[in-house]
Amino acid sequence: MKKILLKFLTIESIESDPINLEHALRVATAVLLVEVTRADFIVQPAEKARLRELLERQFGLSTAELDALMEEAEADADRLVSLQHITRLLNEHYDHSMKLRVVEMMWQLVYADGEKDHYEEHLIRQVADLLYISHSEFIQARHKAEI
User: Fold this and answer.
1) For residue 47, with 0-12 CB atoms within 10 Å meaning exposed, 13-18 middle and 19 or more buried, which class applies?
2) Which of 28, 62, 126, 133 stands the most exposed, by the fewest C-beta atoms within 10 Å?
């Protein structure tokens, strides 16, 4: 119970500070992307490189900032129990186009190693549903990444 209350209070304090909120949104996005690289149980070097490229491009990070974000996201992904708190944060603070962008980045990671695994697709479908991305947008994002 203490952990649940602490987590709730932490989220509340993050959301009241714009700098912390921006950081929390970056970490949440990065955690979802890390989860995609791990979905098929094999993290390929091409996936890792593509992940860094996507985060750098999306958030305009320096190498040091990107390294710190990756480290934090991987640690959070190690402790991840549910996608609910991550997607809730994104739903509350990202507009629809940014949530769709997250799904597109997830698909781009899937194709980084040249293979689409059913575990990867299942994870993205789950995230897309939690982010209120329609099935047609989900399919369009996949086709966009296949090109």
Assistant:
1) buried
2) 62
Residue 117's φ and ψ, nearest 5 degrees, are: -100, 145
Q: How far apart are CA 125 and CA 133, in angstroms?
A: 9
pLDDT tens for each residue of the chain, 147 residues long: 444 434 444 444 455 567 799 999 999 999 999 999 999 998 999 999 999 999 999 999 999 999 999 999 999 999 999 999 999 999 999 999 999 999 999 999 999 988 899 999 999 999 999 999 999 999 999 999 987
Question: Measured between alpha carbons, how far is residue 73 from residues 28, 29, 55 in Å?
Answer: 7, 9, 11
pTM of the shown model: 0.86
Domain range for 11 is 2-146
